[in-house]
Design goal:
The complex is a heterodimer. Helices cover 71% and strands 0% of the residues of chain A. Chain A is mostly helical. Chain A has one domain. Chain A is globular. Chain B folds into 3 domains: 92 residues, Beta-grasp domain (Ubiquitin-like (UB roll)), CATH 3.10.20; 107 residues, Translation factors (Elongation Factor Tu (Ef-tu), domain 3); 125 residues, 3-Layer(aba) Sandwich (Rossmann fold). Chain B is built from 11 helices and 16 strands. In chain B, strands 9-8-11-6-7-10 form a 6-stranded antiparallel beta sheet. A 5-stranded mixed beta sheet of chain B has the order 2-1-5-3-4. Chain B is elongated, with a radius of gyration of 26 Å. Classes of the chains: A mainly alpha, B alpha/beta. At the A-B interface, α3, α4 and α5 of A face α1 of B.
Chain lengths: 196, 376
């Protein structure tokens, strides 16, 4: 286990090691749901929520079940099953308990089941041998980082709607260019904090 | 590979999946149990019902035989299944907003396929939709009316009777096995709208007039494969185009092509009731081989002094023996009708014909709100 404070990991996951703009995970929903800031806020919040939860549930399953039995090679399928089940469960609870939260988050939750950013953060946290608190901090930070990035892109895309874009680049083209520029900006933070 | 490891892997994976499945099943049973919900429709106890919560509203209504139009089958993509939900479901979700206008969002209109029945609901559904039913029918007769048009006479089996107003239409469902045999196969349900050509009095049958459209999915099926004795299903009646029976104004009816069907229903219904209203019936077709429902009208015009009949064939073919009108139908209307200010008008046919006739009638002083039409 590396000697890094969970707070450093949280901060680093949002800015210097953003899961989306540095590791390029979760791109599909990043492009698909960044049309308006409102939906981006909804999905961003849902991703944050699920990533904290999977990190917290994935760590014990990996370290208390798979490692003692020597079954680390099952990590991919186990994490996928775990994420899918967890998301279903959380959706059911939210739907029952809070109508407002469900209206804002609920419809996005099934989308997240297939979000590679969530699987990616689970695999990073076991590869880097994080402890439990570090894992949760990494999960929360990654979710927040994704949140920040998707909302920023949605804001830019709302502006782009009123700008003159060369016809060949309209739609996905300009979105990718903008996302790439954002990623380069975040690259400026690279190496500021060591997280492994 | 080590058999022990293999078994252990299977056990761990199976155990984990089983555990998660168990948690979900228990949650489904206890958390997602919404009990019995009351669905109130238009404050009308006859159609309001109670059901187990948890289902989506479109399906819950369909189970009660309340058919809200839907083309995508509850995916939330077609935006047809709009229903006003006054209470019990919150405001529209982000996924619905693209199908709703701002005024509809304010009125709390929702896509019924995206609404889950979780509380008691208070709905407003237009009365016409509540009257829509699904009918299992038997093809009683397939009569050739003209070279490319057939009259499909359906005997209603279940339910055995239909209540409709002359002018309304039904949707004919194309059978699934036929769609799957097409190249390329079609997987979505296909249905097509046809005006009812029979009278409301004959409530046990529905007659549809179906003209063969080149490469048309439904019309090809009707014209080539459908046979007497086959079973088909229809839904209906639909539509705002119907005879206003509470007025006694003189009527102008104009039917073009297979738009003759609702006009046939309206005219036959009127004279079956022994109407005293003046009825001028204009029928536009191409050539003599396209003309049907002709002898009946000639006989009717001879029998009833308040009925006038003006057929016109605008595209006569060589050899056609025809003494009557040969102009486009709006020109015939223009010549025959002098003053339309006190009249009421029913038009059905291709859009270009309807627009032309509406132009003529407005010039003759007919106010727009008394022009009823059905474009196809």
């Amino acid at each position: 286990m590396p000697e890094i404070s969970p707070f450093v990991i949280l901060f680093a996951a949002v800015f210097t090691n953003n899961i989306l703009l540095v590791y390029f995970l979760g791109m599909c929903s990043f492009i698909a749901v960044s049309n308006t800031t409102q939906t981006a806020l909804g999905l961003g919040a849902a991703v944050t929520f699920v990533s904290v939860l999977t990190a917290a549930a994935g760590w014990p399953v990996y370290h208390l079940v798979l490692v003692p039995l020597g079954l680390e090679y099952l990590q991919f399928i186990v994490f996928i099953v775990l994420i899918a089940g967890l998301v279903q469960f959380v959706e059911m609870v939210i739907e029952r308990k809070s109508q407002t939260l469900y209206d804002n988050l609920g419809i996005f939750l099934p989308l997240i089941t297939v979000n590679c950013a969530i699987l990616g953060l689970c695999l990073f946290m076991v590869n880097w041998r994080y402890g439990f608190l570090q894992s949760v901090a990494w999960g929360a930070g990654s979710g927040l980082g994704w949140f920040v990035a998707v909302v920023a892109l949605a804001g830019l895309r709302q502006k782009i709607r009123f700008s003159k874009v060369p016809p060949a680049l309209e739609g996905p083209g300009i979105t990718i260019v903008v996302a790439g520029t954002m990623a380069m900006a975040f690259m400026g933070f690279a190496g500021m904090v060591a997280i492994r | 590979m080590d058999v022990g490891l293999l078994l252990l892997s299977a056990a761990v994976l199976g155990g984990l999946s089983g555990f998660l499945a168990l948690v979900l099943i228990i949650a489904e049973k206890y958390i997602a149990d919404y009990g019995v919900c009351k669905v109130e429709i238009n404050h009308d106890p006859a159609v309001s019902f109670e059901c187990r919560g948890g289902a989506n509203l479109l399906m819950a209504l369909a189970e009660r035989k309340i058919f809200i139009p839907s083309a995508c089958g509850g995916q939330g993509t077609c935006g047809y299944c709009k229903v006003e939900v006054r209470a019990g479901a919150g405001s529209a979700l982000a996924t619905e907003r693209m199908h709703l206008t701002r005024a509809e969002v304010r009125r709390n209109v929702r896509l019924s396929c995206q609404v889950k029945v979780k509380n008691d609901l208070d709905l407003r559904i237009p009365a016409e939709l509540l009257a829509v039913q699904e009918f299992a029918c038997l093809v009683e007769k397939l009569e050739v009316l003209s070279h490319d048009t057939k009259l499909l006479r359906l005997k209603l089996l279940d339910p055995p009777r239909i209540a409709f107003k002359p002018g309304q239409y039904c949707q004919l469902n194309v059978p699934r096995d036929y769609l799957l045999r097409l190249t390329p196969p079609i997987f979505e349900p296909v249905f097509r709208a046809y005006s009812i050509a029979s009278m409301p009095k004959d409530s046990g049958v529905v007659e549809l007039i179906i003209r063969l459209v080149p490469n048309g999915i439904c019309t090809t099926w009707v014209h080539t494969l459908l046979a007497e004795g086959d079973r088909v299903t229809i839904t209906g009646p639909y539509g705002e185009f119907y005879l206003r029976e509470d007025s006694d104004r003189p009527i102008i009816c104009v039917g073009g092509g297979s738009g003759v069907a609702p006009v046939r229903s309206i005219v036959e219904h009127l004279f079956d009731k022994g109407t005293q209203r003046r009825v001028d019936c204009f029928v536009g077709q191409r050539a003599l081989r396209d003309l049907y429902w002709h002898k009946e009208n000639v006989a009717r015009a001879a029998r009833h002094r308040n009925f006038r009949y003006f057929p016109s064939l605008s595209g006569l073919e060589p050899g056609d023996e025809w003494e009557g009108e040969t102009e486009f139908i709006h020109l015939v209307v223009d010549r025959i009708i002098n003053d339309a200010a006190d009249k009421e008008c029913y038009l059905c046919g291709p859009p270009i014909m309807i627009d032309a006739v509406i132009g003529v009638l407005k010039d003759k002083g007919l106010p727009e709100e008394r022009i009823y039409f059905d474009k196809f």
